[in-house]
Amino acid sequence: MNASHLADLGERLRHRLRLHARVLDASRTAQTFSHASAPDAISRIYVINLDRKPDRWKRLQRELNRFQARHGEPLTTITRRFSATDARYLRTTPDNGTLITEFSLADQLTVAPNPQLFINDQTRALKISMTRQEIAVALSHIEVWRHVATGDATNTLVLEDDVFLAYGFAGGLERTWSALHRHVQADRGWDLLYLSFHETNPGTRQRIKAALYQPLPGLWQASGYVLSKQGAQRLLDLLPMHGPVDLWLNLQFEKLTVYTAGRSLIEQRIDEPSTNAYSVLPVLSQVGVVTREKPLVAEVRHLQQPVVAFGDAGTGLTSLATALSMLGYTCLSDLTDLPVSEQAALLQSRRKQAFNAYVNIGGLTPAVMNEISSRYPKARFICTSSNPGPVKGLPVDRVLQLASHVTEKWAELSGFLGLTYPSFPYPAAEELGQRQIDDVSPFERYTVQDLRYDKSPWILAKSPERSNGISVKRSESSFNEGPSADWISGRTLNPRDWSLRGDTFPSNLSLFSPKNFMEAAGSPARLRFQAEATPVRAYTSAAIASCRSYLYGRFSAILRPARGSGLITGLFLHRNGPRQEIDIEFLGKDPTKMLVNVFFNPGPAGTKLEYGYRGTPTVIDLRFDAAASFHEYGIEWLPDAIRWRVDGQVVYERAPWGPTPIPDQPLEFNINLWHSRSKEFAGRLSIEQTSAVAELNSIKVETLK
What we know:
This protein is an alpha+beta fold and 705 residues long. The protein has three domains: 3-287, Spore Coat Polysaccharide Biosynthesis Protein SpsA, Chain A (Alpha-Beta Complex), CATH 3.90.550; 307-417, Rossmann fold (3-Layer(aba) Sandwich); 448-462 and 543-681 and 699-704, Jelly Rolls (Sandwich), CATH 2.60.120. Helices cover 19% and strands 28% of the residues. It has 14 helices and 39 strands. The protein has an 18-stranded mixed sheet that branches. An eight-stranded mixed sheet has the order 2-1-6-13-8-15-11-10, sandwiched between helices. It has a five-stranded parallel sheet with strand order 18-19-17-20-21, covered by helices on one side. The longest helix is centred in the N-terminal third of the chain and has 19 residues, at 132-150. The radius of gyration is 29 Å and the shape is globular.
């Protein structure tokens, strides 16, 4: 697991000191390495490196060139680059004889015990699916093992490309290597020597000699290790691998002869973001182990701007708009014209534009694009048509042809804009076509107040010119109920439609439990909150979720939210990867108000963009006490608008970019009661409020035809 995901500010500062201190190391001859294969030498180095990360390969070459082998040759002379498997191009499930892409929470707890969780039937049954990135990393290591097992080197150092050689590397490795060969019997040999590791629990290693230890399960990082030829074959014989490579290696310690250096001689860099995505982290959040919600902030980048993209209909313009958004652009797309205020700001070079990318905007004619080109020396233009057409007159070096037949679109696009090659698949979005702007402002029936927003490229700062987003003319929408997931009190929830949650999330101080959803004939269902100690939380509560995810529709419930400071009753649509959400929430401290919220992150399913934790909240004054009686609350979610309803009446509406784009990925429908960690937001829970209920009369789901 990459250390950058767990490092706090103090660790980052210490890391920076270690990174700078390494260049002061006077010992630059690493006697352990030799170009000649021998039992007493490491004669090969493999660096696992993605083709799209040449900068990392060059940086590690410079790192290795700081040291010489025993005969004076630079370490790069025995180094080979291994082209890593790229998660982006994984199209099929790996062969089960090589890698099984599922593991259990019990496997995780064997390696990283947690005092709040136990290895029992429940944790054995909780299966975790590896992410695409974890699968790619595992396959890369396995392929390197095959090279080592069939190669001519007796011992090989395997490195991932995001490491550096720590201060004292040469001397520390020589002492460890000498201790290893004094300890190991020649007829038995050894398999694996960790040079880069992080102990999940101190004391998971047994000291053998001064610089040599034998580990127990509890080591993370497979970013730097020495593998003997026999060790590589033994690892291959133990396949299939189950789960991430560093976890699986821990579970093989009893079957292998494994050692570690006295300290980590190779360290992972945490001064740049990892592109990996770890399957266990969201699971640990759900079971309640992760208790701090660390908000992600979109990386501030120097962007070539403005970007203008154009092309024939059906040539991937909406997909390009999504791709630019994923790269961090605030992208306006698929309109017949620019909003008047935006066009004035753009063409008068006021630098007060709300957007920095414009895709498939009819009003951006060839003449206007030439004017933009002359006003903005860093402007970039992208054409998705096979026939360039309107690019005539634009500087050739500032135009990219990104026609549909181009297979490496990310490589072309990111290279053209000078940005890092993304770790997500290029989007394939349904074409929206050019939509006409509507002068009608979004509807607000009741008094509303905007709260503090997140900051991201996908949230516009409000201004008088764009206070209500960008409304587009829309056709009449019609809805149907199929497949029906409706429910009314007195019936039992259909398990094909609804599940009772048994998890939680970091900002929730209660653990959801199915027993807290109580149904009784002739009475509303009750979602109960109560003081009840569990290993991870002091309270339990209730939540239900749809078994299906929906793309657009009407979602409503007749309910009475719970009253009480610190409590929140929620009715919302949600997904992760990328995180998108549409909320109704009732703060128990003041149930005369209804909070609505939208979270938006761009990209197709699987894109790990989860930035922000506030979203874009707005408080609506209901003019009545919601906790006193039942009312119907609903979300009407369309491709070009979101409307919130109370008792069938629209009380608030958002248009695209008011202030976010409209969520465009399938979402799960949820109703819950929970206790917020934020006292500033929800208030402080009092002793009298440690038992409360929200009541639910019915649920209705209508999908968009």
